[in-house]
Design goal:
Three copies of one chain form a homotrimer.
Chain A: H1 2-8, E1 11-15, H2 21-31, E2 34-37, H3 44-50, E3 53-57, H4 63-79, E4 83-86, H5 94-106, E5 111-115, H6 116-122, H7 137-151, E6 154-158, E7 162-165, E8 170-173, H8 186-198, H9 206-227, H10 232-245, H11 248-254, E9 257-258
Parallel strand pairs in A: 1-2, 1-3, 3-4, 4-5, 5-6
Antiparallel strand pairs in A: 6-7, 7-8, 8-9
Helix pairs in contact in A: 2-8, 2-10, 3-4, 4-5, 6-7, 8-9, 9-10, 9-11
InterPro entries (chains A, B, C): Hyethyz_kinase, Ribokinase-like
Catalytic activity (chains A, B, C): 5-(2-hydroxyethyl)-4-methylthiazole + ATP = 4-methyl-5-(2-phosphooxyethyl)-thiazole + ADP + H(+)
EC number (chains A, B, C): 2.7.1.50
Chain lengths: ~260, ~260, ~260
């Protein structure tokens, strides 16, 4: 799938948060996609229609941006462009949770990428999931399936172990490196990488494409740590290096996926 | 204090300028804090209330953002959350100077972090301070004390030598490296680091916490230059590395503080 | 010219897109300019008047930002400050093409920096230019001259070979490295570097200053690849390093310019 991605070089329309724009764009360029950022309501429909995938990341939300995201999402739906939602901080403020619900109700979202706490907030299970970052794998699967079924989408719930499910099929991926949590934007960039893979397959392959995206990402992180373990800044750059270097063959060999 | 910061892992709500968001977030992650960026008036009160500290940096100001900052600042005051103001470009345009004055009047600001020229502009002494970047140390102390007394806050006035004062106690710190001035966002990130330290102490320790923050920062910069003096880009990354590596013991050993 | 730039240390007022702000600022600092970002209509006139050059980059456009750019542009015109336009994505959406036309009609733009496709869109020749990124050098020269003549400006049309022309004089520059296309913001930063050089010369030298800027940029990229060819992330940082290291003498020796 990675070879195919590089050949297709999909245009990924990113409406993402202002903390991670540069890192997202560099990661997408490295792996072989073409990122474009566009936020204005006057042009997002054109861009989403032209794109291979649309990423909606609410990390620095506003009312105006939400409206533009919904316009873009509807245009993407009409064009058959997959829509990937990253519900950054859902549960942290009601403003964010509400925005996600509005998007999920008005737009046909193909894939949601979040951590366990965020996904739990989306399905009203905040109280259940405590150890947000990966400890409670049982709960993680539960909220992932609930989200997938509630919105007929693929849920990508990341943590120490990543869960990818469409409500029936389930993949768990154990690649990656803990230093990713010390570099801002790595979670958000993963949303972009999932979008890039989704752009290159048909809807019935979104779950496999998402699992492959998560594996590729994790393998690149492992290679990055081998190359550069001097500190978090260098590691963050080395990870971009490796996103450009990692091959389909390496992913197939090094991925730790269970289904 | 650095060990304690890492243990507390404070949430720092950053309302900062769009040039430095990523670098600020990465620096805060490296040193052991949890950055969160939120700008919308609909959620800043919730976020500032939940946070351990609130950073207001006016580097790319707008009317709308100012209103949100004041909302956040008032919520922080109510919650007992320290508010750190970074008056980027005060004096460069009257728009910026006016915004800072509005914030200082409507919000109880705990700590102001700026260079001598910016702080001079805030206390109406633009004419006095000429050699903005550190040469006139006498003037720097003068404007720092004037600001601290005028707004009952800690003034952190940075330059070749950094002055930290609450109007009575005075610390001067001589750590750091001149290459910091060639990497955008290093001044702004320092505001964030001061906020992270402030989040872990009581108000009567803000001045000591600020001095320790400034020393830690300077020591990390010196270590970064030892590690990577190839160019400004590499140095900027190495500095993030070192913010994650520098220890309390190294700071205590290498800091050059006078009080 | 590079020695002179470093001596003048020009203030470059950047109104640029949110994907590339940090990289633009770091590149400008490295080469010896002083970047300042300001976007609010309340202050852009003051800032553009104080600056040595004004960069208008429409990479993440909005209606509000366009209004502020035009205010800034008119203030720059009044003050004799050169205005550099980077029409990112012109042709990709009509929103962007229209914004560029409005700016070009209301503001006296000194220099336009874009790729062949963008410039073709500005002069209504989208249909002619197909191989946007550098293959059709004949077409590139054609659209460059057409733009230069239509708006009495210098056109800097970048690609594998870069064309710089004021409609009469023509320079072509063959420096650079293909990896620049894998690091987001390198095209946009070039617009900033052209602005920095323009800030240090008289209007009748804008074409030579632009050619020197493009050559310096290309030579720095070649040196960066020699230093760091591990991956796109490292290369992007090494390029900032080299922008700070490259000397006038190296540019004069290594540039590949034809006129």
């Amino acid at each position: 799938m990675l070879n195919n991605l590089k050949e297709v070089n999909p245009l990924v329309h990113c409406m993402t948060n202002m903390v991670v724009t540069t890192y997202t764009a560099n990661g997408l360029l490295a792996i072989g996609a073409s990122p474009v950022m566009a936020y204005a309501k006057e042009e997002v429909e054109d861009m989403a229609t032209a794109a291979g995938a649309l990423l909606l990341n609410i990390g620095t939300p506003s009312v105006e941006l939400t409206e533009a995201m919904i316009l873009a999402g509807k245009a993407a739906n009409k064009a058959g462009t997959p829509v990937i939602l990253d519900p950054v901080g859902a549960g942290a403020t009601t403003f964010r949770t509400d925005i996600c619900h509005r998007i999920l109700e008005e737009v046909d979202v193909s894939i949601v990428r979040g951590n366990a706490g965020e996904v739990a907030a989306l399905v009203g299970m905040d109280g259940v999931v405590k150890g947000v970052d990966g400890s409670l794998d049982g709960d993680k699967l539960l909220v992932a399936k609930k989200l997938a079924n509630a919105y007929t989408c693929v849920a990508v719930v990341t943590g120490e172990v990543d869960i990818i499910t469409d409500g029936e099929k389930v993949y768990s991926v154990s690649n990656g490196h803990s230093w990713l949590t010390k570099v801002v934007g790595t979670g958000c960039l993963l949303g972009g990488v999932v979008a890039a893979f989704a752009a290159t397959v048909k809807p019935d392959q979104y779950v496999e494409a998402s699992a492959f995206a998560v594996s590729s990402y994790g393998v690149a992180a492992e290679k990055a740590f081998e190359q550069s373990n001097k500190g978090f800044g260098s590691f963050g750059q080395a990870f971009i290096d490796q996103l450009g270097i990692v091959t389909e063959e390496e992913v197939l060999k090094l991925r730790k996926v269970e289904s």
